[in-house]
Design goal:
The protein is α/β, with parallel strands linked by helices. The protein contains twelve helices and eight strands. Helix 2 runs parallel beside helix 4, helix 4 runs parallel beside helix 5 and helix 6 packs parallel to helix 7. The longest helix is centred in the last third of the chain and has 20 residues. The chain is globular.
């Protein structure tokens, strides 16, 4: 299956397909996919929706997650994943890349690139990862204006309002903000960086809306499974940077081995083979679409030195 064949392309909008998944019983599990290949692998594992993290995007570009990238740069990643899999994609929209008009531009750009959903956070620039210290929060009514602008501009995009208020304003502040954002038109709420199961349960008991949980590693949230989040009242869960963390660790090991050994021989068993790579990206499926391309014969193993 490739994105070049019209018969294989979804007919419903990405936002509609996202809502259909969310309407089913159970929690919607969305692993982070930091590029098209990661998205293909997540799809092959059976996931039906994906997440695109701002932290993963920026780290893959070699820069920190401080609100530095642009809408067009994010759309480059969205298009990769949407084309590779066709799966509904929730995208990290940071603070909306500006005020109301900028948010509207972001919404239309993300939709055009293939996104199904976006979350917008109530931080001020320069923003930080939600699990770091000393985040600066926007006035809740200014944030609500962004949500209203997103709602006004969207054709199908599912809008999630993220609040980072729990760390500085407590549960009452986070809940109050969530209710303001829902009144402004948010479809769901993302309470960021809650630190205990009791906090997750309390927030869910006080906010009547679909809720998103963030299961990032090395942050302020303890490890919970998807089933545990569901039991606490959450309808969606993301693992935002996990794919990038694993890939980066493997790459670091690779470069260290080349530097140490003068080659990759020690890591061949840990590599995706050429056949596995071509199967993952549908290499032969693409070749079959163009009769002028002779089908590639994949070498079997590596030749031995004579």
């Amino acid at each position: 299956m490739t994105y070049l064949v019209a018969a294989n392309l979804p007919t419903a909008s990405a936002g509609e397909r996202f809502r259909a998944l969310l309407a089913r019983p159970g929690i919607l599990q969305m692993p982070g996919a930091h590029n098209g290949m990661a998205a293909l692998q997540a799809s092959a594992a059976g996931f039906e929706a994906l997440y695109l993290s701002g932290a993963a995007m920026t780290a893959s570009m070699g820069i920190p997650d401080l609100g530095m990238i642009t809408v067009d740069e994010v759309c480059f990643f969205i298009r990769q994943i949407a084309r590779a899999t066709g799966l509904p994609l929730l995208v990290d929209g940071d603070t909306g890349y500006g005020e109301a008009l900028n948010v509207m531009h972001m919404v239309r750009s993300f939709e055009d690139a293939g996104a199904a959903a976006v979350h917008i956070e109530d931080q001020l620039l320069p923003k930080k990862c939600g699990h770091l210290n000393d985040k600066k929060l926007a006035d809740p009514h200014d944030m609500a204006a962004k949500i209203a602008a997103a709602r006004h501009a969207r054709r199908h995009l599912f809008i999630v309002a993220r609040t980072d208020a729990a760390a500085s304003e407590g549960m009452d502040g986070a809940v109050a903000r969530a209710k303001v954002y829902l009144e402004a038109g948010a479809d769901a709420i993302f309470p960021e960086a809650l630190t205990t199961a009791e906090m997750f349960r309390t927030f869910a008991s006080r906010v009547d809306a679909p809720l998103l949980a963030n299961m990032t590693e090395f942050g302020r949230t303890p490890f919970f499974t998807a089933a545990e989040f569901q039991d606490m009242g959450y309808r969606m869960v993301i693992w935002p940077v996990s794919s990038l963390r694993v890939a980066n660790k493997a790459q670091a090991d690779l470069y260290a081995a080349i530097r140490r050994d003068g080659g990759t021989q020690a890591l061949l068993e840990r590599m995706q083979t050429r056949a596995e790579l071509y199967a993952a990206i549908g290499y032969h499926d693409y070749e079959a679409l163009d009769a002028s391309i002779v089908k590639t014969v994949i070498p079997e193993g590596m030749p031995q030195r004579q």
